[in-house]
Amino acid sequence: MKNIFTEKTYRKWLRLSIVVIYLIIVAGAVVRMTGSGMGCPDWPKCFGYLIPPTERAQLDFQPLTSYEEGMVIIVDESLRVAKKDFTSSNSYNADNWEPYTKHDYSIFNKYHTWTEYINRLIGALGGLVVLIATIISFQFFRKKKYITILTAVALLAMLVQAVIGKIVVDTNLSPLLITIHMIVALLIVGLLIYLLHEVQPVDNRYAHKGKWHQFALVLIVLTLIQVALGTQVRQYIDHQIDIFGYPVKSTWLENNAPLVFLIHRSYSILLVLLHGYFIYKAVRFYQHPRNYYYWLAVLFILTIIGGVLMNYVDFPFGSQASHLVLASIILGVQFYLWMRLRTVHYRS
């Protein structure tokens, strides 16, 4: 039997974990883009089912039907939850049901439901992958105890993400909690990238002078601030959608654009200039390998294009989701470069 407790296997599962976390971010962006966040109004099940319904009729009361505790039906445009396991009679009996009190959202849309359900499945897959990586990390416990501990921290953070996801649903998509949900996902990515760097078989760090690695860290912090500003803009847009609806996209930022949007737009210019300097000096002066720096430049260009399209072309379909996903990948690349720069100085 092949031994899975090797550094090579651990690195493979770390890479897979990073990929799956990014898939979770993509899935979350699609959920926001399609307005599917309440497609499953309860958690962890969906309308009380492990596999959600596909038709609205499945959520109507059915006579002579076996119901399990927690199953959901819709009665008079509100959710009713089975109090216990029972078989229904020919008519609806309110004594067998209780109202769902965490929120009053009771709309069924099969596309929204299955979009959110798939998002949850990907989240569960992420937890499973990180769990396996944690188990494999115990090979380091004697010599590199911090590797095992930090991998376990990543697993704990995945569990925290699940709890936050539940609260997001219970609060009917609280904007603040959605922002926290996103930031925690980015922190998990950063932690996994750190672990991957720590177990590389060769020293692949980039030499530099002085405090150049600290400048790279500052860029990460500045980008995180920009992401936080972007989530605030998104919250404002969500509010505009509630007022004007999706068909009137041109009105979302047309009149009385909030200060946070103006800051977000102008702040992007500063980020472009700082990253341009960072890439130029790293490639031309320190002669670092170009691939990751060029990827960083391309990602920034695409992100700026996405922002321009949203502002001036009335939010083309998918632009908001791609904008968010690109920003999260930028942070991953930044963090990877920072790990390669960290603690290494220029050798003349």
UniProtKB/TrEMBL annotation:
<dbReference type="GO" id="GO:0006784">
    <property type="term" value="P:heme A biosynthetic process"/>
</dbReference>
<comment type="pathway">
    <text>Porphyrin-containing compound metabolism.</text>
</comment>
<dbReference type="GO" id="GO:0016491">
    <property type="term" value="F:oxidoreductase activity"/>
</dbReference>
<keyword id="KW-0350">Heme biosynthesis</keyword>
<dbReference type="GO" id="GO:0016020">
    <property type="term" value="C:membrane"/>
</dbReference>
<keyword id="KW-0560">Oxidoreductase</keyword>
<keyword id="KW-0479">Metal-binding</keyword>
<keyword id="KW-0408">Iron</keyword>
<feature type="transmembrane region" description="Helical">
    <location>
        <begin position="292"/>
        <end position="313"/>
    </location>
</feature>
<feature type="transmembrane region" description="Helical">
    <location>
        <begin position="319"/>
        <end position="339"/>
    </location>
</feature>
<keyword id="KW-0812">Transmembrane</keyword>
<keyword id="KW-1133">Transmembrane helix</keyword>
<feature type="transmembrane region" description="Helical">
    <location>
        <begin position="176"/>
        <end position="196"/>
    </location>
</feature>
<keyword id="KW-1015">Disulfide bond</keyword>
<dbReference type="InterPro" id="IPR003780">
    <property type="entry name" value="COX15/CtaA_fam"/>
</dbReference>
<feature type="transmembrane region" description="Helical">
    <location>
        <begin position="121"/>
        <end position="141"/>
    </location>
</feature>
<dbReference type="Pfam" id="PF02628">
    <property type="entry name" value="COX15-CtaA"/>
</dbReference>
<feature type="transmembrane region" description="Helical">
    <location>
        <begin position="257"/>
        <end position="280"/>
    </location>
</feature>
<dbReference type="GO" id="GO:0046872">
    <property type="term" value="F:metal ion binding"/>
</dbReference>
<protein>
    <submittedName>
        <fullName>Heme A synthase</fullName>
    </submittedName>
</protein>
<feature type="transmembrane region" description="Helical">
    <location>
        <begin position="146"/>
        <end position="164"/>
    </location>
</feature>
<dbReference type="InterPro" id="IPR050450">
    <property type="entry name" value="COX15/CtaA_HemeA_synthase"/>
</dbReference>
<keyword id="KW-1003">Cell membrane</keyword>
<feature type="transmembrane region" description="Helical">
    <location>
        <begin position="12"/>
        <end position="31"/>
    </location>
</feature>
<keyword id="KW-0472">Membrane</keyword>
<feature type="transmembrane region" description="Helical">
    <location>
        <begin position="216"/>
        <end position="237"/>
    </location>
</feature>
